[in-house]
């Protein structure tokens, strides 16, 4: 692009023509109007001297306006600082470059702006050639690639997070099964209880990752969703709330959130101790659902964490994706989480 700009500088400011040469002003303008690049000639002070047709269209300036306005004033506010810096560099005799963008009814366009000083025989800068090339397609492709890479990193982190949590949850279920076996009927072994809990955990995982786009607006019973996720933790978890149904489209969200909260309770919270309890309640108000998770901890060394973990961030993200909010509060008893879901998600 820099070599192209040097050629265009020669076209705009050529050597003096011979007596027999044709009038070059119309030829020059025709050549400049053919290119899709936005080409502008600026004064050293930033005044717009002339501009080709593509530039007029991009900046919304009539072709026969006479120009003379400050070039920077035509740029979006977000890129004027970068344009001002590049203009100063070009005025001092240095080639400068900056990224720009503009908005129109067709969307946002992205530009690569190259400013080249035009000098006289003594080397003095007399004007500045600015060539702006539309790089929208390239920029959008780069943005798509960045988003794809971010998604892959998120999935990799999620996989690592799930694998680590799986071992912790299973260890917690073993401990729960051993405790429950002491109060179970004769002949009921901890292994049998653990096998049942692992089967329930598998069902909870299925519910958490259920994908049912074909169900449309079909609804699922809220109590059933909560019970399926919390079943592995037995009597340590209680649920209460009015009869309610939730859209299938948010069933996965609720199951994922409850599964993550239960996992953290096994690792750090109420379910990590000997007799801690978890209570899950929900209320309805005008079609909106409020679900509250309350931990009653038998340990007093569980304070608010110093930093947010991946699981906490994931919970917030998936709830926000359906328009909901998450509020956390740490008390002497343990963690309380309040999840508000938007209207029409649940109906009595």
How would you explain this protein's 3D organization?
By secondary structure, the protein is of the alpha+beta class. The chain folds into 2 domains: 2-134, Beta-Lactamase, CATH 3.30.450.20; 141-347, Histidine kinase-like ATPase, C-terminal domain (Heat Shock Protein 90, 2-Layer Sandwich). The chain is built from 9 helices and 13 strands. It has helices at residues 2-12, 24-34, 53-59, 80-91, 136-181, 190-208, 222-230, 248-267, 310-321; strands at 38-42, 48-51, 96-104, 107-119, 125-134, 219-221, 237-240, 245-247, 277-285, 288-296, 325-330, 335-341, 346-347. It has a 5-stranded antiparallel sheet with strand order 2-1-5-4-3, with helices on both faces. A hairpin with a 4-residue loop joins strand 11 and strand 12 (335-341). Helix 6 (190-208) crosses helix 7 (222-230), helix 6 (190-208) packs across helix 8 and helix 7 packs parallel to helix 8. The longest helix is centred in the middle third of the chain and has 46 residues, at 136-181. The protein starts with a helix and ends with a strand.
Alpha carbon gyration radius? 33 Å
Structural class: alpha+beta
CATH class of the largest domain: Alpha Beta
| SSE pattern, N- to C-terminal | HHEEHHEEEHHEHEEHEEHEEE
Q: What is the mean pLDDT?
A: 79
Low-confidence stretches: 14-24, 212-217
- Helix fraction? 40-55%
With strands numbered from the N-terminus, the spatial order across the biggest sheet is 2-1-5-4-3
Separate helix tally: 9
The H-level CATH homologous superfamily of the largest domain, spelled out, is Histidine kinase-like ATPase, C-terminal domain
* Overall tally of structural domains: 2
CATH topology of the largest domain: Heat Shock Protein 90
Number of strands: 13
User: Which second-level CATH architecture of the largest domain applies?
Assistant: 2-Layer Sandwich
Tell me the overall shape: elongated
Q: Strand count, sense and closure of the main sheet? A: 5 strands, antiparallel
Q: What is the first-to-last residue Cα distance?
A: 65 Å
Strand content: 15-25%
